[in-house]
């Protein structure tokens, strides 16, 4: 059973996928979309779900540091509800506090240029979201 992880932003969606046993997450791609039109990511996301035979979707839930849910978190919740209905798959919202900053730090430590970081930051954040979820489950989902 594979899972797909999503880091949902206002202009991009980072995408990661798990291995079949649910042990590891790998970054796949970044989908460019318009968050005011959920359908703008449908074709690409549907293809990735089918191609990877995903049976679960993990979506990052950006919470404030005090645990409350702000505007970005509410946007992720709305998209999660849409994805659950659209693809008829289970959707898990996963606390993503600090994942983008952690991804940025890893890329900085790797001495990656700003231009290259911008291209991979979203899928790396999606990888960290999905890996966090997988680790909490101890492997096989």
Description of the structure:
With 141 residues, the protein is of the alpha/beta class. It has one domain (2-137): Nucleotidyltransferase, domain 5 (2-Layer Sandwich). It is built from four helices and five strands. The longest helix is centred in the last third of the chain and has 24 residues, at 114-137.
Outline type = globular
Amount of beta strand: 15-25%
Briefly note the structural class of the backbone: alpha/beta
Broad CATH class: Alpha Beta
What's the gyration radius in Å? 14 Å
The CATH architecture designation is 2-Layer Sandwich
Q: How many E strands?
A: 5
Which regions have little confidence, pLDDT < 50, spanning 5+ residues? Answer: none
The domain tally reads 1
EC number: 3.1.-.-
Function: Could be a nuclease involved in processing of the 5'-end of pre-16S rRNA.
Protein name: Putative pre-16S rRNA nuclease
Family: Belongs to the YqgF HJR family.
Question: Keyphrases for this structure?
Answer:
141 residues; alpha/beta; Nucleotidyltransferase, domain 5; 5 strands; globular; ribosome biogenesis; nuclease
State the gist of this model:
With 141 residues, the protein is of the alpha/beta class.
Topology diagram in text:
Blueprint lengths: L1 E7 L3 E7 L6 E8 L9 H10 L2 E8 L9 H17 L3 E5 L3 H11 L4 H24 L4
Parallel strand pairs: 1-4, 4-5
Antiparallel strand pairs: 1-2, 2-3
Helix pairs in contact: 3-4
């Amino acid at each position: 059973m594979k899972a797909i992880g999503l880091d949902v932003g206002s202009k991009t969606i980072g995408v990661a996928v798990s291995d079949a046993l649910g042990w590891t997450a790998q970054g796949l791609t970044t989908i460019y979309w318009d968050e005011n039109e959920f359908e703008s990511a449908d074709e690409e996301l549907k293809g990735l779900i089918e191609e990877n035979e995903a049976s679960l979707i993990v979506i990052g839930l950006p919470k404030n540091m005090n645990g409350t849910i702000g505007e970005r978190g509410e946007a992720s919740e709305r998209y999660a509800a849409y994805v659950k209905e659209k693809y008829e798959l289970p959707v898990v919202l996963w606390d993503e506090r600090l994942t983008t900053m952690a991804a940025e730090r890893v890329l900085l430590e790797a001495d990656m240029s700003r231009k290259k970081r911008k291209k991979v930051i979203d899928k790396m954040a999606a990888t960290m979201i999905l890996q966090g979820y997988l680790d909490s489950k101890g492997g096989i989902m």
